[in-house]
Amino acid sequence: MRAVIVAAAVAFLISLFGTPLAIRVFTALKTGQPIRDGLGLASNAGKKGTPTMGGVAFIVATVFAYAAGHVALTTLPERQIAQESPTMTALVLLGLFVFCGVVGFLDDFLKVRRRNSDGLSAKGKLLGQLIVGGAFAAVALWWPSTNGETVASEHISFIRDISFLDVGKVGSVLVFVFVIMSMSNGVNLTDGLDGLATGASILVLGAYALIGFWQYRHWCGDSDYARVNDYCYQVRDPLEIAMIAAAAAAACVGFLWWNTSPARIFMGDTGALGLGGLIGGLAVATRTTLLSIIIGGLFVIITMSVVIQIISFKTTGKRVFRMSPLQHHFELAGWSEVNIVVRFWIVAGICVAIGLGLFYSDFLAVMG
User: Fold this and answer.
1) 3-state secondary structure of 165
2) What is the average pLDDT score of the chain?
3) Are 59 and 98 in contact (CB under 8 A)?
4) How many CB atoms lie within 10 A of CB 109?
5) What is the C-alpha to C-alpha distance for residues 97 and 119, in angstroms, rounded to an integer?
6) I need a surface site. Which of 62, 112, 270, 353 has the fewest CB within 10 A?
7) Phi, psi at residue 185, to the nearest 5°?
8) Residue 223: predicted pLDDT
9) Which residues contact 57 (CB under 8 A, 6 or more apart)?
């Protein structure tokens, strides 16, 4: 627990005090967010020129905090420092965070350079996500630990692996890539109002910090626990998962101080794609792939609003929503930006609570 707390505390402090530095740097570099006029969105007023690419701040904070968490591990009892050295799980999770962020950074950079909202093409962005997801899927599936456990599983998982849904390595790569791309784009679509994606991500990452730590306390890799209990979690490096999720959540809290309305900096695609990649990786690593649909329910709802809008318009010529993603529908309906953000946070919190409830109820059912 100490390592998780240290990682979270360091991430929060670096992000809280480092984000103002990022604001000054990106302002000096004139990386103001291009805003499309004529959309009728009240939230766009006064935002032109606000620096973007702020995701760099919490990504860097998380990486440094992870290193600090490992320093804290050296002070723990021998049984608890089995994961003292950086692991393949950390490489996959932080790699997804950083390199999905790099894809987003390229998109943000092109927007700023061209002085309009056109960054990477949709195909270019998806190709970047595909390459990153595929590369780390290979690492997650073909590099086992000394006990044979891999970061990702060859089974579809809900709260743990579903034994009869064995899709093999190739199928697992496809599932891995799909989860990463879906979550990345889900968080990206949720971004757009001050603090909305940041606050929702904090809730989801916090849930995965709890799940990772719970799995660590009931881990099949802990010989003392597995010897006396019939039920344990067959995952790889759950303490690493908890540390990284907690650090990322805390880094987002520090960032939210500056990103809440009126935002002084935007996370940009750098932050949104990075967070989505990390959340997708956490879902795969904790064997909760299908449960992530519930835990990240707000991202799913907002993504589906875009899908529904596109399908409806192309098939009938009519729009279901005034505008998509969904948050902009409510803007045009007259809701204030702050009301939308807070109410959507509540929806995100309800989804997280349901997901955690299902996760814990499964444990109680098995142990009871």
Assistant:
1) strand
2) 90
3) yes
4) 18
5) 20
6) 353
7) -70, -30
8) 73
9) 15, 18, 19, 22, 251, 255, 265
Please count the other Cβ atoms lying within 10 Å of the Cβ belonging to residue 365: 10
Cβ neighbours of 243 (radius 10 Å): 34
Rounded to whole angstroms, the Cα distance separating 28 from 36 reads 22
**Residue written as token pair 């590099």:** 143
* CA–CA distance, 194 with 213 (Å, rounded to integer): 30
Question: Could you report the per-residue pLDDT of 343-367, keeping only the tens digit for each?
Answer: 999 999 999 999 999 999 998 887 7
Residues 276 and 100 sit within 8 Å (Cβ to Cβ)? yes
Q: Is 191 in a helix, a strand, or coil?
A: coil
Grouping H, G, I as helix, E, B as strand and the rest as coil, residue 221 is: coil
Compute CA distances 258 → 54, 147, 246, 266, whole Å: 10, 44, 19, 9
Take residue 300 and report the two structure tokens written for it.
Answer: 């799913």
Its sign, for the CA torsion 268, 274, 280, 282, is negative
Burial class for 316, CB neighbours closer than 10 Å (0-12, 13-18, 19+)? exposed
Spatial CA neighbour of 98 closest among 281, 290, 284, 293? 281
Strands 155-157 and 161-166: antiparallel
Residue 177 near residue 214, CB atoms below 8 Å: no
Token reading at 87: 């692991």
Alpha helices by DSSP H, listed for the chain, are 2-28, 55-73, 88-114, 122-142, 168-190, 196-217, 223-228, 238-259, 268-285, 291-295, 297-316, 326-332, 337-367
Is the separation of the CB atoms in 333 and 350 below 8 Å? no
DSSP bridge partners of 32: 51
Torsion angle of alpha carbons 51, 301, 309, 54, nearest 10°?
10
Residue with tokens 């064997």: 287
